[in-house]
Amino acid sequence: MFEVRDEETIIAQCTPSGSGAIALLRVSGENALEIAQKFAVLPHKKFFRDLPSHTIHYGQIIDESNHTIDHVLFLLMRAPQTFTGQNTIEITCHNNPFIIAAIINQAIKHGARIAQRGEFTKRAFLNKKIDITQAEAINELIHAHTEQALKKSLTQLEGSFSHWINKIEEKLLHALSLCEASFEFVEEDVNFDQQIKLSIHAVIQDIVHIEKEYDHQQQIKEGIRIALIGSVNAGKSALFNKLIKTERAIVTEIAGTTRDVIEAGIYRNQSYITFVDTAGLRETEEKIEQEGIKRSFKEAEKADIILLIIDSSQKLSQLEENLYNSLIKQYQPKVIPIASKIDLSQQNNFIPDALKVSALTNQGIDTLEQKIKEKMNALLNNYTAPYLLNQRQFKLLEQLKKPLKHIAKMTHETIEHELLSIHLRDALELLTELSGKSLSDRSIDDIFKNFCVGK
Ligand SMILES: Nc1nc2c(ncn2[C@@H]2O[C@H](COP(=O)(O)OP(=O)(O)OP(=O)(O)O)[C@@H](O)[C@H]2O)c(=O)[nH]1
Ligand SMILES: [Mg+2]
């Protein structure tokens, strides 16, 4: 739970720990300048308090015995023109864990405390520098797994989602004002019902549209999952290794070599792709293998793209044919059929237009990669909303459908304006929660909990 003491000065490392030449630490809060001054030495004995805002200064960090900890750059930024809306000093130091720990220690000794997860962004939100959907967009931006997700988080950061909420809010407010006017002017013979219905239906359409795209949004966000599925010994693992360009999975002539799901994530085509090798499908009494096969079916379900591997060098049993047919029937749009081991003599031509591939000679691998790319682009590109929803936003939109359903039903009948007005107010309440305008402290905490320290 967040202890919001907004005036406290906080410090955290903003760059990831690990290798790299430099690291960035951010100190933010009312007393950021005074606290930083206690462990900073600037040339010509200058003080932060006398220096103009938004200026960079070379200097040193010293400990209490005046020993130099590091030579650094200080970026001095005064409130309110800062990310958090508070006084801020950013310290660019050398990226060494001992240096970073020593600087943080100095800051703590002089009155700062370590920032909690997402606390910088939370302050930006509380100080009205950004709204809640923009704050969430920052989190999405940092964790974007595809180029598309990155672009959409950026537009969301620029306010695209807030803009969408505002538009819906306007339509609902319009309906509400007409509704209230209707029962105010009940004596006179004015009727706004048609306009009310139009406004409400427009809102419902907007929400249904965005919900339909939610699964797609998840894909954009998390990257694409590509599973290799097929019967035992079909050459799945050999092809998996080829695609990830590493000998990750064990390849042997023994049927049933792969027992469990093996995943490998790579960046390709501006996206994060998770390739998934699975246990070969066959009838078996063996417990571990059975469990593996169960998982293979689950992976087929979960995958965005299935590479269905059919060994062209073997005659297929009736059981195998049935299995392949049922997988194709169930998952047609996401299946790429592949005839494997094409370097050997062909014993079946089960799917005539399957992509002919050999993991041994590399025949067809380029074409397969091209095909995967096309399928990925098709998945990622035909998506129109300029923003991405997260779980919280999606749940709120789901909830919003409830009052809207009541409202929609009412508009089919003669409108009872007072009742309609209550439902409209409920809907507006949920909408303001979506934009963060009326968030309770509790739900604010839930949102920022998902951030990393230093954001
Ligand atoms: N000639 C030839 N042999 C291949 C090719 N791909 C795989 N193999 C061989 O086929 C056998 C099975 O390959 P795997 O990749 O382990 O097959 P799998 O589908 O992962 O098998 P399971 O994990 O048991 O389901 C191995 O002996 C491979 O060397 C290929 O393109 N050409
Ligand atoms: Mg295998």
Characterise the protein shown here:
- This protein has helices at residues 32-39, 97-109, 119-126, 132-143, 147-157, 160-184, 193-212, 214-222, 236-244, 287-302, 318-331, 365-381, 391-412, 417-435, 441-449, and strands spanning 10-13, 22-28, 40-41, 55-62, 68-77, 88-94, 113-114, 224-230, 262-268, 271-277, 305-311, 335-340, 355-356.
- The protein is of the alpha/beta class and 455 residues long.
- It has 3 domains: 10-131, 2-Layer Sandwich (Gyrase A, domain 2), CATH 3.30.1360; 138-213 and 388-436, tRNA modification GTPase MnmE domain 2 (Four Helix Bundle (Hemerythrin (Met), subunit A)); 228-363, Rossmann fold, CATH 3.40.50.
- The strands form 2 sheets. Strands 3-4-5-6-2-1-7 form a 7-stranded mixed beta sheet.
- α6 (160-184) runs antiparallel to α7, α6 runs antiparallel to α14 (417-435) and α7 (193-212) runs antiparallel to α13.
- The model has no long low-confidence stretch (mean pLDDT 87).
- It binds guanosine-5'-triphosphate and magnesium ion (MG).
Could you tell me how far the N terminus lies from the C terminus, measured between alpha carbons in angstroms? 17 Å
Largest sheet: 7 strands, mixed
Q: What do the pLDDT scores average to?
A: 87
Number of strands: 13
| Oligomeric state | single chain
CATH top-level class of the largest domain? Alpha Beta
